[in-house]
Design brief:
about 450 residues; alpha/beta; Rossmann fold; 2 domains; seven-stranded parallel β-sheet; six-stranded parallel β-sheet; 15 helices; Glyco_trans_4-like_N; glycosyltransferase activity
Length: about 450
């Protein structure tokens, strides 16, 4: 067995989309000759449980939640200023967003002024110490750091340099050209972060991305970066997660969305489309429901109240992974809202494909639209086109009632490449190549 040291900010028992890819690689890489040790952070308060990967050694560096304290202080200051400020004549404050507009615009976070590259950088120094201890005990042949937090790559950079080991850097989300990223408030901060990105890219022995579009963007941004140093390894699904999971019994035509809405990823246009569909087609009354499984979203709650959808829309909150799969399997239609960027591909897309339920994707032309269209898995609608969303909801409801929608599910050949076992095999082959090149 060869040894791999994997560096990630999140790992089970902490839940969320960011943990799944890492946990599945840790689960299946041993099948291909790679023993895995993980350097991660302590889970947040309230998160309990054990890691169901007994073959994986986990090192947890304390996660210091300084940003939470700073945010509370900033929130108190904003509240005080709001109380002292008198509204000017003619100021609205009660205006509601127009059709297709998010209820809340993306806000600059306090971390944008304080931390580079992100607030997890406070964790990085301790993570470096834990990782160096793991190097001495585990004797890895390769260091592997994976986002979403760029701070993990700073840890990988330092540890790989000190230990003089080959280093793989994995971008599940882009760094500087992430479509969800808000530019830094000051030019010097932006330039510093860009130099950090360039430094880690040039130091890494290999770069892994989760979409071909991300590879294209990196090569365009850094012309000196050789194309053979970047590999596209997609996200996927684990068939073990679907074993013996009974579909949740819904008593109405049910549209399910799993995951979190944040910043530019909004549920508002879809909800406005649902409200328009109900107004156009009274026969849908009492026959249609929408279930959001994930972190409860205030913007969604406000839109539900504004559009009088209280009897239609339910936010069930965060549920266990297998429960979310049960919701997907029991739904008649799955809602997918990737957000901006033609390379943005949420990891849950592949689980949507795996349960073989029809998908309504609200996205521009890009990797998601091509995947849904090429596999015959559903329909694609412009994300801000409320009228077209309403038409799609009605059409999907009618197709379901006649059984026509079921004939457009993804084919087995297209799904095979997204099996987590196959993804681990590709990752292991890449690691083998790196070790052989150093031999």
């Amino acid at each position: 067995m060869k040894n791999l040291l994997l560096i990630t900010i999140v790992f089970p028992p902490e839940a969320g989309g960011g943990t799944i890819r890492v946990a599945k690689n840790a689960k299946y890489l041993p099948c291909h000759g790679w023993s895995v040790a993980v350097v991660t952070s302590t889970p947040p308060k309230g998160v309990t449980g054990t890691v169901e990967l007994p073959q994986v050694r986990v090192y947890r560096a304390p996660r210091l939640e300084v940003i939470g304290l700073l945010s509370k202080c900033a929130g108190a200051l904003r509240t005080l200023l709001a109380l002292l400020r008198r509204p000017r004549s003619g100021e609205g404050g009660g205006q509601r967003p127009g059709p297709g507009q998010p209820a809340v615009a993306p806000r600059r976070r306090l971390a944008d002024y304080v931390f580079i590259p992100d607030d997890k950088v406070i964790w990085a120094p301790l993570a470096c110490l834990w990782a160096l201890c793991a190097v001495l005990r585990h004797r890895p042949g390769v260091i592997y750091s994976t986002s979403p937090s760029p701070s993990t790559h700073l840890v990988g950079y330092l540890v790989a340099s000190v230990a003089r080991l080959p280093w793989v850097i994995e971008f599940r989300d882009p760094w500087i050209f992430n479509p969800f990223r808000v530019p830094r408030p000051y030019g010097w901060m932006e330039r510093l972060e860009q130099r950090l990105e360039e430094r880690v890219l040039r130091r890494a022995d290999h770069v892994v991305v989760t979409s071909e579009e991300y590879k294209r963007d990196f090569l365009a941004r850094y012309p000196g970066l050789a194309a053979d140093r970047i590999s596209f390894i997609p996200n996927g699904f684990d068939l073990d997660d679907f074993a013996e999971v009974a579909p949740h019994p819904f008593d109405r035509f049910t549209i399910v969305h799993t995951g979190t809405f944040y910043e530019a990823r909004s549920s508002v246009p879809f909800l406005e489309g649902v409200a328009l569909a109900l107004s156009r087609e009274p026969r849908l009354a009492g026959q249609l429901q929408v279930v959001f499984a994930g972190v409860r979203d205030e913007t969604t709650a406000a839109a539900v109240e504004r559009l009088s959808l209280q009897g239609v829309v339910t936010q069930v909150g965060v549920v266990p992974h297998r429960q979310s799969i049960a919701y997907l399997a029991g739904a008649q239609l799955l809602l997918l809202v990737p957000g901006p960027g033609d390379g943005t591909m949420p990891g849950k897309t592949y689980e949507y494909l795996a349960v073989r339920r029809p998908i309504l994707a609200l996205c521009e032309e890009g990797v998601v639209s091509r995947l849904v269209t090429s596999t015959g898995s559903g329909c694609v609608v412009e994300p801000e086109d409320v009228a077209a969303i309403a038409d799609a909801v009605i059409a999907c409801y009618d197709a379901r009632s006649t059984g026509a929608l079921e004939r457009d599910v993804a084919c087995e050949a297209a799904l095979a490449q997204f099996d987590r076992r196959e993804i681990a095999r590709k990752t292991a082959r890449l690691l083998d190549t790196l070790v052989a090149g150093r031999g």
